[in-house]
Amino acid sequence: MHSTDRPSAEQWLAESIQSVSSIDEGLGRKLRELSNTEHRVPVLALAGPYNAGKSTLLKRLCVDDGAEVPERLLIQSEPSTTRVEQARIGPWEIHDTPGLDAEDPEHAATAMAAAAASDHVLILMTHDLFSEESSTAELLRSLPPGAVDLVLSRIDKAVVGGDPAAIHAYVATKADDARERAARVGHPDVRVFAVAADVKGRIGNRPADRTRYDRGREWDGVADLRQFLENPPSQSAIEAAARRRVTSVLDQASKTAAGLLSSAEDELRELSLDDAKDDSLIDELRRQERDARDMLSSTLREVAQRRPAASARSRMWVAADTQLTNARRALEDFARDAGLETPSWTVDLDIIKEVPAMVADQEAGTDPVDLANAEAFIRDQAKGLAGDTDRIKELEKALDARNAAKREQGVRDWYQRKDTPFDGVRDARQAEAELQRLKRQAAGLQLGMAMLDAFKEERLIAAQLRDRELAEQAARDNAVALASRVAALLHDGVDDGGCVRAAFRGTEAQLRDREAERAEHRRQAANAHARWLTARTQIGDLRKRAPDV
């Protein structure tokens, strides 16, 4: 922009472009183009209500000047101009704009934007002029004094018979009225032109040359308007228009920033609500875990105290299986409702169930118990499992990654160390399944050993006691102790491999992961919010510091 304070104006423009580009690169490019006043053809916008004669006037000017009429220029009573049409007339590039008060609000928005981006505006109106609440008045308020003039259009239709003398009298009265109305909305010194661009509408959309408009040429007012158009705007007017264009884009960028700021605030609110919801879910999850633990313990202890004591163990395993099934179903329902993956259980009772079958007493409790065979069974199972200890550790290390790609690479490396072909995701899933199976076996065998120890202790007590009632009571006491121990092992697990706790903690970990992802989203949204807030503040400051031109 040219001004006596050129460095200040250039600095202001550079800051404006930078701030606008940080919000919308398209607006930034537009600002660069609109702010360039060198080697630029000044733009004059024809604005006003639809059917005010804007397209008719542009066609007349084109024909009189020998310029090409825009191909899409239409002249009809209904709104027909939906975008800006343009033509070069003398030193001006004249833009025909959509109607200000058409039903489609986009038409008015397009016209307002075109007027704001122009160097000068001619507002056309018919004999009704405009009210202070009209779109025309709104446009006038948005433009600075000196940037706009008025055109009384279609004056040939305002006087019955079209007598030139009567038309001139009508124009004098209406022009004064128009000036008064313009003064009330901030434009006390507007010029008022009066034209009949197509007398009686004889030409319309038909092809025409200059001679077709000769009838009425001496009084239709177009010559006065053409004389005005022969003079290009002054440099100060061009600079003022450039500043107006820049501030118009600044206003657009400010609205864009406000919208982005609102979106970031909405996202932050939504993330906070999701955090509160997941915190509530975690509290509910922990309550369910406590309930499952307490129910498991109380049920096993209650079953263990029933008579006969000899069958307490088999009843205990049935009850444990039932409670674990209930807890698993409740947790699966919780995960589904919370939008989480189905939790996995790391222990089952298959191996444990085989032990009481081998060492179970008869109802009378007189048959010998083959503890040696039972212990040999468990020892043999444990020996086979011990051979896989290193394999479990290696698989756990390979699979110790939440990210699927990292997990697959870890398993791939493990297979390569074993000189075993690797089949991508399929082998990774098989490795995970194998790890879970080995963990279930390990937990089950440890529980079996615990139960076997209890059997040994029970038989020792029974051998020492001759009184059958005392033996029965001792067996029940031992069964209750065993129930407490088994309940704790099933919940707390062996080396964190417990069925209940691990499943619930795994589900809680999913919620924590989801919270961690939201934390990253919140960080990004907060950064965006700060960025849009800063940009909007900068634009507001630039708007206030716009240099005088």
Return the CATH class of the domain at 43-232: Alpha Beta
Low-confidence segments, given as residue ranges, are 1-7, 354-370
The tally of strands reads: 6
What is the average of the pLDDT values?
A: 77
Shape: rod-shaped
Strand content: 5-15%
Helix content: 55-70%
CATH fold name of the domain at 43-232? Rossmann fold
User: Span between N and C termini?
Assistant: 8 Å
What is the gyration radius calculated from CA atoms? 44 Å
- Number of DSSP helices? 16
Largest sheet: 6 strands, mixed
Q: Which strand order spans the largest sheet, edge to edge or round the barrel?
A: 2-3-1-4-5-6
Judged by helices, strands and strand pairing, the structural class is: mainly alpha
CATH architecture of the domain at 43-232: 3-Layer(aba) Sandwich
SSE order: HHEHEEHEHEHEHHHHHHHHHH
**What do we call the CATH homologous superfamily of the domain at 43-232?**
P-loop containing nucleotide triphosphate hydrolases
